[in-house]
Amino acid sequence: MKRRPDRWGGRAGSRRGGPSGARGPRAGEDSLFPLDPAAAAEAAAEAAAAAAARQQDPEAARQKGIALLARRDYGSAELRDRLLAVSFSPDAVESAMAALENAGFLDDGRYAEHFVAYHSGRGQGPRRIRQEMRGKGLPEHLITGAINESASVWAERAQALRRRRFGMEPPGTLEERARQSRFLLYRGFTPAQVRMAFVVDRVDIEDLDLDADMPEDSAHVD
After folding, report:
1. Given a cut of 90, is residue 107 above it in pLDDT?
2. 210 and 159: one domain?
3. Residues linked to residue 5 through DSSP beta bridges, in sequence order
4. 109: which DSSP letter?
């Protein structure tokens, strides 16, 4: 049986389709919008110039800083590194940083206080917090000022953490006292604070060498 011609003049089911079996241009054939190499090069040059201008633009750097701060808080050293990492020039970054500080968006003192409050609330001790704050590039005087609470406050936090982790019952054996002490040391509490935390629960750990149990990564932290 012969196939009926379709309305384009081709046979039904033909792959050619279209009027008289017309087809589109193949690779290498002229199209309706041929690519002009000179125009493409000009467009690429304009895009590169715009990107270079943006890298030098303090306002663009400031807007990027605001966008980053809207997601979470930053210290100035960390935010500076982030802006430089996205290719803003040092001059643009310094200008943006000054504008953000003057507007109150960026405050290292406030950031340090919030950092300590957040991490101490998660059960971290002052040694570990200090180490992490140094890694954020915060000035030493701001770190000390934010962490500088009485030993008894940190001891109470260590005691609360011990009870949450191991229960209200005081450890009854030397091995268990040693295990719980090491846990608190690795959380960043000092040997003195760990001893005070156990004294509150009337547990004697004087026979434990807590200084020898200090984790290596925090042994150098003041």
Report:
1. yes
2. yes
3. 11
4. H
Is the residue at 26 inside a domain?
A: no
* 61-129-70 Cα angle (round to 5): 30
Q: Which residue has the tokens 């270079």?
A: 52
pLDDT digits (tens, 9 = 90+) for 126-158: 999 999 999 999 999 999 999 987 888 999 999
> In this prediction, what percent of the chain has a pLDDT beyond 90?
53
Cα torsion angle, 203, 205, 210, 213, sign:
negative
End residue of a domain, out of 65, 84, 102? 102
What is the C-alpha end-to-end distance of the chain, expressed in Å?
96
Say if 4 falls within a structural domain: no
Owning domain of residue 129:
108-147
DSSP single-letter state for residue 21: G
Widest pairwise Cα distance in the chain: 104
